[in-house]
Design a protein that fits this description.
By secondary structure, the chain is an alpha/beta fold. It is built from 14 helices and 25 strands. Strands 4-3-5-6-7 form a 5-stranded parallel sheet, sandwiched between helices. A 5-stranded mixed sheet has the order 12-13-14-15-16, sandwiched between helices. A hairpin with a 6-residue loop joins strand 14 and strand 15. Helix 1 packs across helix 3 and helix 7 crosses helix 8. It is globular. The N and C termini lie far apart (59 Å).
Length: 529
C-alpha cells in the first residue's frame, strides 16, 4: 500500500500519462495525469523555495478547481501538512483556524482572497501585540493568490509553481501528520482532526476493496462534493487517484445545472450529499437525465428511507448509502458491503474496519439494545490537534458519539447522536460555536442553538435568545442575524431566531434542548403559532 496519497498520483502518471485526470465543468479546463503529477511536483518545489519545510501547515482556501488538487497533493508530496478549509468561511472563522493551526502559508483564489487578506491582517495584529509583549518579531502567514492582482508581500500561483526549490524528501513516515480537518469531535466544539498519511491511505485501500468497486478506472465521477470536506477529499478524490478515473470538478450545486453536467460529461458515478436528492426530485424529467449513471453514493448525513425509495422508484437507480466521520478518513460502512441491503441501514463495515457497541459503562448493550458506536481500524485519526487528545484508546478503539444498533447480518442502523451536532446540507454545525458568536453581543444574556428538520437541507439552525437588556425582540433578532452573518459561514447562520424571556433549564442549570426541539416539532405540526 502506498504510504503517501501523492504516491497514487505518481502511479497514475506512470500508468496512464495522457489520460484526462481532472476537468472543470465551468471552464472546460482539463489536465492529464502526467500534467497533474508535474504540477503537484512544482508546488512541492515552490513551497520549498519559499522556505517552507516538512511539518509546516499550509492552509488551502480554494474552491473545487484544478489548483486545489495540485496544491493538496504538492503539500503532501513535500511532507508538509494540508489544512483545507471551507472557502465560504467568514473572516473570524479563518482567523481562528489560522491561529489554531499555526499555518505559515494560505493559498487563496479570487473567491476567497478578500476574506483571507482580512484574516491574515487580523492574525498579524494579534501576533504583533504578542511579539511586542515578548520582545520578539512577529511573522504572520504568507498568501499565495490564484488568478488575482497581487498586493505587497503576496506570491502568485504562477510564481509558486515556477520556483526552483530543494529536492523533495523521498520517503514518508506513515504516522506523520498529513492533513488537519476541522470538526467537532465528541466535545461539540470545532477542533482539527489529525489525519496521518497512514489513515488516509488505509481508508482509500479499504474502500477500494469493496466488491464491486465504488469507482473504477473507466468511470467519470461528479466532483460536486467540496474538496475541503473529508468526503470529497479522501473518499472521492482518493478513489479517483487510486483507480485512475476522471473527476469533473464542480463548484457549488445547482439542481438543473448538475443534471446538465451529468448528461454532457457522461458522468457514471455520483457521490453526493443527501439534500441533493430532495432537490433533484423537484426537477421535471429527472428520470430521463441520469442515463450515463451506474452508481450513486450518498454519505455525510442520514438519508430518509422514504426519499430513497421514491428516488429509486422514479429513476431505477439504487442509492448506496454509507456512514463515516472525519476522524475515520472518512468511510466506515457502506450498503455495498451488505449481504441484503436495507434502505434504512447505512450498511456493513468496510474490509479492515471493526464496529462494536457500548453502553454508558463501556460494556456491550444487553440483547438488541442500541449503544454508542465504537470503531477500530488503520483509517482512524491520531487525535485532535495539537497534542493528539481524545484519539483511539490503547486497543485502537474510538467512540464516535453516535448511537446505533447492528443486526445479525452485520448491518449498522443509526439511531441518534450523543453530540448535539446539526448537519446542514451535509456540513457539520456545532451549536456551541454558534452560541458563542451570538453571546458576544452585549444585549444577549444567553443563547441556545438546536437543529430542526428541513426538507431541502436535512436540518436547519434555530436559535433561542434571551435578552440581557430592555430591547425589543425584533431589534435583538436583527442584531443577532447581522452579527452571525459577519462571523459565520452561511450554512451555520440561524434560519430562525426566537427571542424569549427565559430558557428551560435542568436542575443542574443546563439548557434543556430536548424541550426546545419538542417545541419546534409542535410548531412544525401547526400546534403552535
Amino acid at each position: 500500500m502506498e504510504t503517501n496519497v501523492a504516491d497514487l498520483l505518481s502511479g497514475a502518471a506512470r500508468a496512464e500519462p495522457t489520460k484526462i485526470a481532472l476537468s472543470e465543468a465551468a471552464t472546460g479546463r482539463t489536465v492529464t495525469w502526467a500534467a497533474l503529477d508535474d504540477l503537484a511536483d512544482r508546488v512541492a518545489h515552490g513551497l520549498s523555495a519559499a522556505g517552507m519545510v516538512a511539518g509546516y501547515r499550509v492552509m488551502i482556501s480554494v474552491t473545487n478547481r484544478i489548483e486545489f488538487v495540485a496544491t493538496y497533493l504538492g503539500v503532501l508530496r513535500a511532507r508538509m501538512v494540508a489544512v483545507p478549509i471551507n472557502p465560504r468561511s467568514a473572516t473570524g472563522e479563518v482567523v481562528r483556524m489560522l491561529v489554531d493551526s499555526g499555518s505559515r502559508m494560505v493559498v487563496a483564489d479570487e473567491t476567497t482572497i478578500s476574506t483571507v487578506r482580512a484574516a491574515v491582517v487580523g492574525v498579524g495584529a494579534a501576533l504583533e501585540t504578542s511579539a511586542n509583549q515578548q520582545g520578539a518579531v512577529a511573522a504572520g502567514p504568507r498568501i499565495v493568490s490564484i488568478g488575482t492582482t497581487l498586493e505587497p508581500g503576496e506570491r502568485s500561483w504562477d510564481h509558486l509553481v515556477l520556483a526552483n526549490g530543494a529536492a523533495v524528501p523521498g520517503t514518508t513516515d506513515p504516522e506523520s501528520l498529513a492533513v488537519l480537518l476541522y470538526t467537532s469531535g465528541t466535545s461539540g466544539r470545532p477542533r482539527a482532526a489529525m489525519l496521518s498519511h497512514r489513515a488516509l491511505a488505509a481508508n482509500i485501500a479499504q474502500a477500494a476493496a469493496v466488491v464491486p468497486p465504488m469507482i473504477n478506472g473507466r468511470d467519470v465521477v461528479l466532483g460536486v462534493l467540496p474538496l475541503f470536506h473529508v468526503y470529497g477529499l479522501n473518499a472521492v478524490l482518493g478513489q479517483v487517484l487510486r483507480q485512475h478515473a476522471r473527476l469533473v470538478l464542480v463548484d457549488g450545486f445547482d439542481p438543473e445545472g448538475s443534471l446538465d453536467i451529468i448528461e454532457d460529461e457522461a458522468i457514471s458515478v455520483l457521490p453526493v450529499a443527501p439534500p441533493v436528492f430532495a432537490y433533484w426530485m423537484g426537477v421535471p424529467g429527472l428520470e430521463d437525465r441520469l442515463g450515463p449513471v451506474r452508481t450513486i453514493l450518498s454519505g455525510s448525513a442520514p438519508l430518509a428511507a422514504d426519499l430513497t425509495a421514491a428516488f429509486t422508484a422514479r429513476t431505477g437507480l439504487a442509492i448506496q448509502q454509507g456512514y463515516g466521520l472525519t476522524e475515520a478518513s472518512p468511510v466506515v460502512t457502506s450498503t455495498q458491503c451488505s449481504a441484503d441491503p436495507d434502505p434504512r441501514s447505512v450498511g456493513a463495515p468496510l474490509p479492515g474496519i471493526e464496529i462494536r457497541l457500548a453502553d454508558e459503562s463501556g460494556r456491550a448493550p444487553e440483547d438488541e439494545d442500541s449503544g454508542e458506536i465504537w470503531i477500530r481500524g488503520e483509517n482512524l485519526f491520531s487525535g485532535y490537534w495539537p497534542d493528539g487528545a481524545d484519539g483511539p484508546d490503547a486497543q485502537g478503539w474510538w467512540a464516535t458519539g453516535d448511537v446505533g444498533y447492528v443486526t445479525d447480518a452485520g448491518d449498522l442502523f443509526l439511531v441518534d447522536r450523543l453530540k448535539e451536532l446539526v448537519i446542514v446540507s451535509g456540513f457539520n454545525v456545532y451549536p456551541s460555536e454558534v452560541e458563542d458568536v451570538i453571546t458576544e453581543l452585549d444585549d444577549v444574556a444567553e443563547a441556545a442553538v438546536i437543529g430542526v428538520e428541513d426538507e431541502l437541507t436535512g436540518e436547519a439552525v434555530v436559535a433561542y435568545v434571551k435578552p440581557r437588556h430592555d430591547v425589543s425582540a425584533e431589534a435583538l433578532a436583527d442584531q443577532v442575524r447581522a452579527h452571525c452573518a459577519a462571523r459565520l459561514a452561511g450554512f451555520k447562520q440561524p434560519r430562525v431566531i426566537h427571542v424569549v424571556e427565559t430558557l428551560p433549564y435542568t436542575m443542574t442549570g443546563k439548557v434543556q434542548k430536548g424541550r426546545l426541539r419538542a417545541t419546534e416539532r409542535r410548531r412544525a405540526l401547526g400546534l403552535l403559532e
